[in-house]
Write a structure and sequence with these properties.
By secondary structure, the chain is α+β, with helices and mostly antiparallel strands. The chain contains 15 helices and 20 strands. Strands 13-12-9-10-11-14-19-17 form an 8-stranded antiparallel beta sheet, sandwiched between helices. Strands 3-2-1-4-5 form a 5-stranded parallel beta sheet. A 3-stranded antiparallel beta sheet has the order 7-6-8, covered by helices on one side. The longest helix has 19 residues. The protein starts with a strand and ends with a helix. Bound molecules: adenosine-5'-diphosphate.
Length: 451
């Protein structure tokens, strides 16, 4: 079941990332793109390119029929979905497989299970992952909600079963607000996701976001590649990620990593996945599993030396994992800054023509980006234009190198959040690794009010 030509069903830096892994394996690539992306770097570099529609993603990058037709016409034997877009669409994965094209991703049934939050939580519990205390599945009546909230204690969080992207969640501090917030959460969920089902869990006050990278070969072998700390977030969007986490001990990494790897073996999971936890008071609490490659995967690559995209392609082609758990060593420290085309103070997107571009370089500096001078950043998509990933022998050395790399990086013609990253890397809390998922928003608020 070899793979000779991959259709890349994505755009931007991740399309380029997949192209690079494929070419290093001697595999041809086919880029599909909207009319807005005709001049994108990955389109230029791919062996073939097919225009699949107008700029709106719904008519191009999310258009099942156009993508399948492009794969058929261009003679592709596999499709890599990247992240976002169709990567966690079980229906699309099934359509791909029904056309005898290899889906470089998890089995559709696992994508579906983990895509439903109530189902995902139940599955995770059955697999032995520690859960946030809360309702056993959906909560249908106010009386049930009241009983559960009393049992776990306030504050609680009401979440939409079909939620995503941090939407459809309400924090409730006390019983007198419960009924109102529950009906609000239900109706918001109904209008946003077409499903009013909600469930309840304990609201953690000041947790960190810790996620484990896992891999399965689809036949019951599974490994973990350690954790990433993604606590630095604004509006649930990650801004900077690091590996290893400054707060996770070697014992906890081994213990929790092994629980995650065992879960993958028990599921006979296939491909790459990320198991996300909130971490507070030394305890892990499962929140969700992403059945795809993550934006921040390069920090794991930096400290393990494993090429995760290559691994995805190998597994999809029916090959075994190239590394065993015992082969994986965690060495040094890596941090990724997400570089966005946006105002560093107001966060307003800043698309437009890049007049000058100079990426950072030097030892242990990696820039994943499709930028070049003269390129026009289209206004239709995500504002992330580059990822700067820096490795150091230890966290301190990594931060010094990252500051140096940020100073070198020049993007002119549009605004970027490089100044924000530069400022962050001088904050004592960041230098000490002392930050939770609340830290960035609190800091931004203080900065705005000049306190
Ligand atoms: P989504 O799929 O919408 O991103 P998640 O379940 O992953 O939803 O939660 C998104 C974010 O919401 C988390 O990263 C965390 O910041 C916050 N959150 C979710 N559940 C809880 C909880 N029980 N306590 C505190 N914060 C939570």
């Amino acid at each position: 079941m070899g793979i000779t030509r991959i259709l890349i069903a994505n755009r931007g830096e991740i399309a380029l990332r997949i192209h690079r892994a494929a070419h290093e394996m001697g595999i041809e690539t086919v880029a599909v793109h909207s009319t807005a992306d005709a001049d994108a770097m990955h389109v230029r570099l791919a062996d073939h390119a097919v225009c699949i529609g107008p700029p709106p993603a719904g008519e191009s990058y999310l258009n099942h029929a156009s993508i399948i037709s492009a794969a058929e016409v261009a003679g592709c034997d596999a499709i890599h979905p990247g992240y976002g877009f169709l990567s966690e669409n079980a229906k699309f994965a099934e359509i791909v497989e029904a056309h005898d094209i290899i889906w470089i991703g998890p089995k559709p049934e696992h994508i579906r299970t983990m895509g439903d939050k109530v189902e995902a939580k139940r599955t995770a519990g059955a697999l032995g992952l520690p859960l946030v205390p809360g309702s056993d599945g959906a909560v249908r009546t106010f009386e049930d909600a009241k009983a559960i909230a009393q049992e776990i204690g306030y504050p609680v969080i009401i979440k939409a079963a079909s939620g995503g992207g941090g939407r459809g969640m309400k924090v409730c501090e006390s019983e007198d607000r419960l009924e109102t917030l529950m009906s609000q959460a239900g109706s918001e969920a109904k209008s946003a996701f077409g499903d009013a089902t909600v469930y309840i869990e304990k609201y953690l006050g000041n947790p960190r976001h810790i996620e484990f990278q896992v891999f399965g070969d689809g036949n019951g072998n599974g490994i973990h590649l350690g954790e990433r700390d993604c606590s630095l977030q604004r509006r649930h969007q990650k801004v900077l990620e690091e590996a290893p986490s400054p707060v996770i001990s070697d014992e906890d990494r081994t213990r929790m990593g092994e629980i995650c790897a065992q879960a993958m073996r028990d599921m006979a999971y296939r491909g790459a996945g990320t198991i996300e936890f909130l971490w507070e008071g030394g305890e892990f609490y499962f929140i969700e599993m992403n059945t795809r490659l993550q934006v921040e995967h390069p920090v794991t690559e930096a400290i393990t030396g494993v090429d995760l995209v290559r691994e995805q392609i190998r597994i999809a082609a029916g090959k075994p994992l190239s590394v065993a758990q015992d082969d994986i060593e965690f060495k040094g420290h890596a941090i990724e800054c997400r570089i966005n085309a946006e105002d560093p103070f107001t966060f307003t997107p800043s698309p437009g023509k890049v007049t000058y571009y100079h990426p950072a370089g030097g030892m242990h500096v990696r820039v994943d980006s499709g930028l070049y001078a003269g390129y026009s950043i289209p206004p239709y998509y995500d504002s992330m234009i580059a990822k700067l990933i820096v490795y150091g022998r230890n966290r301190e050395g990594c931060i010094m190198r990252l500051r140096r790399a940020l100073d070198e990086m020049v993007v002119e013609g549009v605004k970027t959040n490089i100044p924000l990253h530069q400022e962050l890397l001088h904050q004592p809390d960041i230098l000490e690794g002392d930050y939770s998922i609340k830290w960035l928003e609190n800091w931004l608020k203080e900065r705005e009010t000049g306190e």
